[in-house]
Amino acid sequence: MTDVKEMEEAREMEERGYFGEFGGSYIPEILVATFDELLATYREARLDPGFWSEYESLMGSYSCRPTPLTFAENLTRHFGGARIYIKREDLNHTGAHKANNVMGQGLLVRRMGKNRVIAETGAGQHGVATATMAAKFGYRCTIYMGEVDVERQRPNVFWMERLGAEVIPVTEGTRILKDAINEAFRDWVTNMDDTHYVLGTACGPHPFPEMVSWFQSIIGKETRQQVREVTGRLPTRIYACVGGGSNAMGMFGGFLDDDVELVGVEAGGLGLDTSAHASRLASDASSLGVAQGYKTYFLQDEDGQMRETHSVAAGLDYVGVSPILAHHRETGRVRFEAATDAEVLEAFSLTLSKEGLIPALESSHAFVQAFKEAPKLSQDDVIVINQSGRGDKDIFTVADAFEDPKWKAFIRDKAKSYESG
Ligand SMILES: *Cc1c(COP(=O)(O)O)cnc(C)c1O
Q1: What is the reported pTM?
Q2: Residue 152: its pLDDT value, please?
Q3: Ligand 1 mean position to 55 CA, how many Å?
Q4: Is residue 84 domain-shared with residue 142, that is, in the same domain?
Q5: What's the rounded Cα separation, in Å, for the pair 286 and 278?
């Protein structure tokens, strides 16, 4: 009797977007109807096989799907252990897995009959992806971005504006991502009739964590098939970096029921023994809280004020984390590790010189952990690293880190040519 009752209760919690004790939906009353509409449209799309094939065909013609699985032959030889394969999400249009999510939501927006999208962005990558989707679907687009980030991320702001989006610098609070999130919600409350909020990762109120993970699961589905085709087996371990958790959820989603070890790698920044990192699940620096509409582990102080985070990879320095991943940590299904900035730059350089691949600094976190573990595995083992994005965008950070003198001279000359008119 209690068993049945417990199972029913668990199912009910899942319906309401809880994964264990994490997730849920803590939203203002005024947005309840909008969230209900989104949830209904999403559930309907999930049950409609035609929707997923439309999604696959859109991603095939617009974003290079299925993305290849590349055998890293030279790295494999270098480490002399497990055979290393790399899933190439960097080959998506706009350079990362973010395309999977925004294009999927673009299709849902059409189903809901809306014609305007808004988003918030920190590093700017999600802003560019959303502006691209809006251009393709013909939606009006507004991107909220903290004023500090607008200044730091000029190249991405430049592209958003060229793509036809309106970029609004947020001057409230500390003028970074969390302030942009507040502004985006304010906009949504005023304009929900024609506007959809394109959340960028597997976080936020229900159904975003589940819905974003579903769109991203295209990564894991393809990888599972590809790795079996090429190696005749399932991988021993899979590595993905964890910011909000969407590329990890997408990759892991293909293997949750398999005997495959799943490893999520967070931003260790200057080290977990400092406060300059963004590790919520691999360290004990975070605590349970409710913020930004959902319940998860946040990097916060005793008063619930969000702490400052740091990472060499701008896409990983988020204070919260996917409630689904928080649950997977609790059950032990996913192991969490952290990679420091210094380790990341080393793995990045090694991948460039050995394979000619340029992983994003975010993705390079996953490479760090894979490189630590590959030598301890045997040649019968297969590991897969998710290269969530390409590193071209990181040229400023990388050139600074390596103190490239020719790059500095180039920037200086460029600035001079502007000054002289
Ligand atoms: C945004 C981004 C991430 C972090 O986001 P997740 O939601 O954790 O996947 C990771 N890699 C790249 C290349 C990104 O652009």
Answers
A1: 0.97
A2: 85
A3: 21
A4: no
A5: 9
